[in-house]
Amino acid sequence: MSTTTVTPLTTADADRLVATARRAAESTGVTVSVTVLDAGGHLLAFRRDDRAVLISGETSTRKAYTALQLDAPTADLVDLVKPDGPFHSLTTALDRPLLFIAGGVPIHRDGRLIGAIGIGGGAPEQDHAFALTAVEALV
User: Fold this and answer.
1) Phi, psi (5° rounding) for residue 32?
2) What is the tens place of the pLDDT at every residue in 28-42?
3) Fewer CB within a 10 Å sphere, N or C end of the chain?
4) Of the candidates 124, 116, 122, 29, which has an alpha carbon nearest to the alpha carbon of residue 71?
5) CA 107, CA 67: separation in Å to the nearest integer?
6) Spatial separation of the C-alpha atoms in residues 108 and 115, rounded to whole Å
7) Is pTM, for the whole model, over 0.90?
8) Helices marked H in the chain — which ranges?
């Protein structure tokens, strides 16, 4: 049996993710908050643009946490927690900061989950696109 060591998400990676996401948002005139978590759910980077709505800091963090814990983009989870969805009670069943709004994306390296990014401040579809742009630039 061989073991492969996967390089964890670094602070340099986190800084690059934040910068890339912010550039993507700025290019569309959107002000955002960006949160990057490592595989253990620990904060590696956070940045709220001066003009971003205050709640975007909280939403970006919850989106990143949700994407990390469920290892899925939050955009893919929205329908699952609707009243008729199979996981409709998940939002209230746990005492955790889950948020099922597009904008959270897990980050993988060599097939292993190493962290997540969350974006808040734009429309959910915009936040998702900014997060994807950042993750794709890292890989």
Assistant:
1) -135, 170
2) 999 999 999 999 999
3) N
4) 116
5) 9
6) 7
7) yes
8) 11-26, 55-70, 90-93, 124-138
